[in-house]
Amino acid sequence: MTETAPRPTLEAVAARAGVSRATVSRVVNGGDGVRESLVERVRQAVDELGYVPNQAARSLVTKRHDAIAVVIAEPETRVFADPFFAMQLRGISKELTAHDSQLVLLLTEGRADHARVGRYLAGGHVDGALVFSLHLDDPLPGLIQRAGVPTVFGGRPCWSEGTRASGPTVYVDCDNRGGAREAVRHLVGLGRTRIAHITGALDQTSAVDRLDGFRDVMVDVDPRLIVESDFTPGGGERAMRELLDNCPDVDAVFAANDLTAYGAMKVLREEGLRVPEDVAVIGFDDMLPVAEQTEPPLTTVRQDIEEMGRLMARLLLRGLDRRSVRDGIGGAPSSVILPTTLIHRASA
Amino acid sequence: MTETAPRPTLEAVAARAGVSRATVSRVVNGGDGVRESLVERVRQAVDELGYVPNQAARSLVTKRHDAIAVVIAEPETRVFADPFFAMQLRGISKELTAHDSQLVLLLTEGRADHARVGRYLAGGHVDGALVFSLHLDDPLPGLIQRAGVPTVFGGRPCWSEGTRASGPTVYVDCDNRGGAREAVRHLVGLGRTRIAHITGALDQTSAVDRLDGFRDVMVDVDPRLIVESDFTPGGGERAMRELLDNCPDVDAVFAANDLTAYGAMKVLREEGLRVPEDVAVIGFDDMLPVAEQTEPPLTTVRQDIEEMGRLMARLLLRGLDRRSVRDGIGGAPSSVILPTTLIHRASA
């Protein structure tokens, strides 16, 4: 490890500036009630010595860390394999940086590590948290509630008994159900009659809502046309094989996301079936470059993932400002549901 | 935001357990000098109330956070675009999780945000830091030194005047120069005579060392056969075009990493040149699946990236244990240079 020189102390700064410890402390914590000429002298001494205030102590006074935790309730392998998360983080990173707030991404190997994440959140290291990709029965919401950290969720949380937060929950989501309906109606409009749905992970509300949208249009559907999957390309492949085994007359597939659609199209190609002539395919997300690089390019339901990340960060920061100002004007921030758009390419 | 119920206080735990505040505090911070029966009563009260100690206050006592920061000195877009970082994080995450230490990834939009990262590191939120992908003149080493945070570096740091740490620096790296020499010797052994090198970002020691290895073998090389690039696929494409313009007789390319080799091979294919018949290509990293999925599959210098991440984490944790135990046995941890291996596939 780098063995470092001793850190300059508050005392050293006070001696250099010719002021008391208390004055240095007040300047470091905002400068309230200190004469401007003294503030200037202290700042100069801080710069010259390279003094960095001990934030563990400082934050006990100011209660702000200028840092926001991001928790993705997936193993880190998935976080880096699914471009959805990178896009959402991009939006969050831009917004936090614009407010000079540090993005603190808490990575885990899986659900067993969530208690540790809860301890870190409770530990007074961040001003708030952005939490996404929650699954049913995830202990995180309960841990976050105990930690007392202001939180905005990405995607409507699926509370189960005992984990529900006591107050109003703020989240950012897209219109999963409406987007799914539009996709399936488009397939119906193309004259398709054996329309299948490959679901996402059904312990997540986004997957449940998209399935509900599919059912809204396809009332009394053959149950074999609904195959449960998990939002991954490999899951899409397995689901498509199952579909072809059970329903060889399938003529359209609405996949719960683009990665699943990509996996399904791979199997269709291997089986010598043409897209869209034999089987039309629609995805969800408009994940670039995936959706543009499938063969043929993928018709899909677009949600603005980066914008969702940006909005989550903005709602959280706005809520934190309200708390510190305590003016209460406009009340607490509300959840936001963003619209979706069907993007027409060649696959359906 | 989730408006949460008030957090249970230390006082509430003390009342529930029928002990003093001081006793609760001692138990929460390790239990030294408290009777086992009292420890048990306090623990039970903590569990029943869901009490979480305020770590900002607690860490002033214990000086440990069970959290390690990871700083990658690249914009977050690059962190998520280059699988090198995901692989290194995989090793780090496994090792930290095995020690129940939280991985805290500090993301930035670029170098302008490094001062903020320095403030977070100085703020008493982590026990140590793992820092990689440093560039020449990066302010991070100086900021880390001021922060006084024990640090292990990934890749030999390139200190410039004024940013050098005062004590010994611990880093994990691979034998960049030796690996490069082996690659170029292999090309010579194939009878190639116009061997080019597409460099990495020359403000990083890994790129400089690989260039040195190339020069070790190719003494008095035609300077037009060395083209500066940046470790990205797009950079590899641009460099290959420049090479073909200036040296149309080039018959081999040693690329500074696999992504660069991938870009170069794309241009060779577009220009109707065959790999390896017309131009042999060797990369560096053995980044899977990239190296296996190029056409033809890529001959490359393997470094064990995940293992490097694991080693960085292990050296840091070992150093922290030494500091807290203060036994001094074995001295401070030393840097580690891992060997490389030339992996023979079809491209050279």
Folded structure, characterized:
Two copies of one chain form a homodimer. The first copy, chain A, is of the alpha/beta class and 348 residues long. The first copy, chain A, folds into three domains: 10-62, lambda repressor-like DNA-binding domains (434 Repressor (Amino-terminal Domain)), CATH 1.10.260.40; 67-173 and 307-334, Response regulator (Rossmann fold); 176-302, Response regulator (Rossmann fold, 3-Layer(aba) Sandwich). Chain A has 14 helices and twelve strands. Chain A has a six-stranded parallel β-sheet, with helices on one face. In chain A, helix 2 (21-28) packs across helix 3 (36-49) and helix 6 packs parallel to helix 14 (305-325).
In short:
The structure is a homodimer of 348-residue chains. The first copy, chain A, has helices spanning 10-17, 21-28, 36-49, 55-62, 76-81, 83-98, 114-122, 140-147, 176-189, 205-217, 233-246, 258-270, 290-293, 305-325; strands at residues 67-72, 102-107, 128-132, 151-154, 171-174, 195-198, 226-227, 252-255, 280-285, 299-302, 336-338, 341-343.
Topology, element by element:
Two copies of one chain form a homodimer.
Chain A: H1 10-17, H2 21-28, H3 36-49, H4 55-62, E1 67-72, H5 76-81, H6 83-98, E2 102-107, H7 114-122, E3 128-132, H8 140-147, E4 151-154, E5 171-174, H9 176-189, E6 195-198, H10 205-217, E7 226-227, H11 233-246, E8 252-255, H12 258-270, E9 280-285, H13 290-293, E10 299-302, H14 305-325, E11 336-338, E12 341-343
Parallel strand pairs in A: 1-2, 1-3, 3-4, 4-5, 5-11, 6-7, 6-8, 8-9, 9-10
Antiparallel strand pairs in A: 10-12
Helix pairs in contact in A: 1-2, 1-3, 2-3, 6-14, 7-8, 9-10, 11-12
